[in-house]
Amino acid sequence: MPDPSRPHDVSRLTSSELERTRRELQASLALARPDSPARTPILAYMSAIDTELAERTADGGTGK
Fold it and tell me: Which segments in the chain show pLDDT lower than 50?
């Protein structure tokens, strides 16, 4: 099982890939039971995606 405390590096994905992946993870989360251990890595990955998208927006879309 993946380590939920390990940071997820999503910086190499394009913005469209990040958005598509986030939608797919949101769908997976909706299907997971509230007590499912699968929710932890899904939420961690979604958080990493949200952070990356926010950084790109703050950066003006120019990258790092």
Answer: none
Q: Is the pTM of this model over 0.90?
A: no
Tell me: the pLDDT tens digits for 7-23?
678 989 999 999 999 99
- DSSP, residue by residue, 13-51: S-HHHHHHHHHHHHHHHHHS-TT-TTHHHHHHHHHHHHH
Residues 6+ apart with CB under 8 A from 2: 41
> What is the DSSP secondary structure assignment for residue 3, as one 8-state letter?
-
Which sign, positive or negative, has the C-alpha torsion 41, 16, 61, 26?
A: negative
